[in-house]
Request: fold
Amino acid sequence: MVKRTWVYDPHSGGKTIPAPVRQRTERRLEAHAEKNYAGRFIRLGIRFHGAFCYVDAFVQPDEPSKALLQTLGETREQYLERLRESPVHLCRLRFFGDEDRWTMAFYTYSHEAYEPCFFGSGDDHGAPEEAFDVAAVYLPDARPSRARRFPRAGPRRW
Reply:
């Protein structure tokens, strides 16, 4: 007789997110993002489906080159508008009934899918704000992109 063993999988199952929890979670994420990542996104797109909370960001695109516009057959305005309306998928949170203990899946562009991941603490459960901190790696730097200047190497003076 084969015995079956139950194994806990933090990346399966979950509970449907109640409307009040959805509202509080959305407010928490927006407040945290605005406080810590202002200037790195235009707006957030937070949506819910069943046990999941999907977090996207909309960012300001870099200026296109003339060659790129010619290749794409778009005007500068069309290009910028298209990219402004294309979300950057950050993460997916899974709800288990506790507003401060969600699991997280990171969106991998190489597979175009959400892949389970750990929080920065090394735990597989955490708060929505912690998940945003992990996923913020996809947000562009707040400073304008410029060529990095390194100091000229010279003799050391002791």
In short: The longest strand covers residues 43-49. Residues 143-158 have pLDDT under 50 and may be disordered. The chain has one domain: 19-138.
